[in-house]
Amino acid sequence: MHSPKPPRRKPGPTTAGADSGEKLDELLISSAICNGEDLGPFVRKTFGTGKPETLLHHLKLFARSKESEIEEVCKAHYQDFIHAVDDLKSLLSDVDSLKSSLSDSNSKLQSIAAPLLSSLDSLVEAQTVSRNVDLAIRAVTHCVRVMELVSRANHHLQSGSFYLALKCVDSIESDFLEKTQSSTLKRMLEKRIPQIRGYVERKVSKELGDWLVEIRVVSRNLGQLAIGEASAARQREEELRMKQKEAEEQSRLSLRDCVYALKEEEDDDDEYDSGLEGSDAFDLTPLYRAYHIHQTLSLEDRFKRYYFDNRELQLKSDSQVSSMTPFLESHQTFFAQIAGFFIVEDRVLRTGGGLISRQEVEFLWDLAVGNMCAVLEDQFSRMQTANHLLLIKDYVSLLGVSLRRYGYTVDALLEVLSKHRDKYHELLLSDCRKQMIEALAADKFEQMLMKKEYEYSMNVLSFQLQTSDIAPAFPYIAPFSTTVPDCCRIVRSFIEDSVSFMSHGGQLDFYDVVKKYLDRLLGEVLDEALLKLINTSVHGVSQAMQVAANMSVFERACDFFFRHAAQLSGVPLRMAERGRRHFPLTKSQNAAEDTLSGLLKNKIDGFMTLIENVNWTSDDVPQGGNEYMNELIIYLETLVSTAQQILPAKVLKRVLRDVLAHISERIVGTLCGDVVKRLSMAAIKGVDVDIQLLESFTEQLKPLLTDKEAKEMKTAFVEIRQLINLLLSSHPENFVNPVIRERSYNALDYRKVAAVSEKLRDPSDSIFGTFGTRGSRQNPKNKSLDTLIKRLKDVS
């Protein structure tokens, strides 16, 4: 209740105003006291002003007014009190009689109930003893059950059945420990139960530690087994692919008897998959036992962390490369250890009941891939032998095949292998260059002799160098030297090594890469080696002829090389043929033919020195040709008979054409040169006989040449033939007729014609001295020749 606010004091009050204010306060205080209101505000105000007398006065008045009311109330209830006292006094006698009656009844009851009380005491005592006996029996029974569990737990501990022992301990702790009344037994159990659990944990932890040590050896063997299975599966695939190619080839040749050779070992993959899954290659019982025990001990999370940390440490240790052993010798153990590690982890992931999660396995795999990539980068950067790099690459690819079956991604490893593709091929090209130089240096420039059929198969059929499907008689002399099969083996090995490196590396279409490096091997390495051989070691015609023959065989071998690369790369032959380029050994082939032609020309020049013995002013025509030409024909016939055995017709044609053209040039050069001062018509006819001998020689080559090639062969000495025809014609001045010249003398140079005509017209020559006497008519042919000479001088 809110107390009334005291009136505000106004400034400058008068005496009358003060009296009226005091009266108002007294009225308010009196009203509040009478109504039972809160007097706190009035008390504070009164003592605040220092005038409590008014308040005390009113309180005293109020107290006196209430005393009268109290007296009136007491007077009103006095009579009732007196009547009540009188009533109580009237009951006093009845109470006394009742008291005596109760006393008598109590005495009788005491006398009657005394025996019953004695019997009741005996009964209560007996019941107490019975309850104590029951409690003792239950306590003993409880202790017996506890001791049975304790005995069973001890038995399980001794037999190594830790899980059953822990179940007994848990049962004791949960079902019996709190109910055990024996304090001694209870204290013993409370002390032993933690000790038993600690003992079990230590035992299974020791077993787990032994298993972690043992599993490293098991993992290495398991990895080697898995990679070996992958290698065997790859070998079976290669064999099946080769059989399929053979069947396709035979089917293409309409040989249907071998078409059914494809269905072999259909379930290789299934056998591989069940090979490791169904084998007892490793035992996870100690691990799962320890995991189960720690689950029972409510230490599951701690055990998971302990297992993961230890396996991570093992993986890091396994990923270390020993500096004491060359990596080439230890790489198989290194990768097999890691492969086995993750095969084990895959089994634990699938059957471990949550011991390790997929994320944790992926973390370990990423860690291992990073370490393996770093090791490969470092080791590949140090390697300088292509074969070493290939061995490691093959094993890594087998590792990838093995682990990909378990769901691990190996793209990062394959990228490292692909990254070093160029280095591998450069090393491989370097090795092949050395081998080819050695093979070419050992060549004796002799045709290869094969005494047995296996030699023919190994050196000819294996590279498809045969020109006929009919097997030759043995001993067989091949048209090529030992250089050809030796170099073919080197190139084939290069192709197979290149395909081996590129295959099983994640890249499906790698034929273009193999073809690129094959082009480099043939166009740079082999071609350069052959050029060097030709320029430094070929000094005789027989050597040059053998090298030229070898080049023709290399041309067929190159076709085989590209087909072989396409087959190994899984590319259809029609696509490989479509992408073929020109012959990659063109430079060395041209050099070989040019060298052969050059040596033959040198040999021809030796025979052509005999032309100096010709009597150019003789009046007699040599019937059988000049001596130099006869010697040349004999040599050319011998050359052709020898070259036919080893040189292809097209090569022989090109070489002979160059030789014949050279002979023609030498004859023309002799006629135009300073050696011949004068010419007689008989000498010209003798040269005509020589040319006829050459023409007869070319006619003998017709079995080797087509009609078109035979005509082209004759064009080699067309210049000397046209020159002789012109000099022997009746009207030599027709040479200056453009139409006739284009038709019959288009190969002649007017300067050479002029030089030879001058020598033939010399007045001192006997052929002009017999034309007639002084004043007789001049010979028309001489006149025509003079006209020709005059016109040629005018042209010049």
Specify the number of helices: 28
Report the sheet with the most strands, covering strand number, pairing sense and barrel closure: 2 strands, antiparallel
Number of DSSP strand runs: 2
Mean pLDDT over the full residue set:
80
The rough form would be described as: elongated
List the strand order in the largest sheet.
1-2
Along the chain, the helix and strand elements come as HHHHHHHHHHHHHEHEHHHHHHHHHHHHHH
Region (Disordered): 1-21
Organism: Brassica campestris
Domain Exocyst complex component EXOC6/Sec15 N-terminal: 58-227
Family: Belongs to the SEC15 family.
Report what the structure shows.
- This is Exocyst complex component.
- One of its GO terms (biological process) is vesicle tethering involved in exocytosis.
- Pfam families: EXOC6_Sec15_N, Sec15_C.
- It is built from 28 helices and two strands.
- It has 796 residues and is mostly helical.
- It has a two-stranded antiparallel sheet with strand order 1-2.
- It starts with 14 loop residues before the first helix and ends with a helix.
- The chain folds into four domains: 115 residues; 195 residues, no CATH class; 172 residues, Orthogonal Bundle (Tetracycline Repressor, domain 2), CATH 1.10.357; 165 residues, Orthogonal Bundle (Tetracycline Repressor, domain 2).
Short account of what is shown:
The protein has 796 residues and is mainly α. It has helices at residues 15-35, 40-49, 53-159, 162-176, 183-252, 268-277, 285-296, 300-318, 327-351, 358-382, 386-404, 411-419, 421-441, 453-459, 483-502, 511-537, 541-569, 573-578, 586-608, 627-643, 649-672, 681-700, 707-714, 718-728, 738-744, 750-760, 766-769, 780-795; strands spanning 449-450, 476-477.
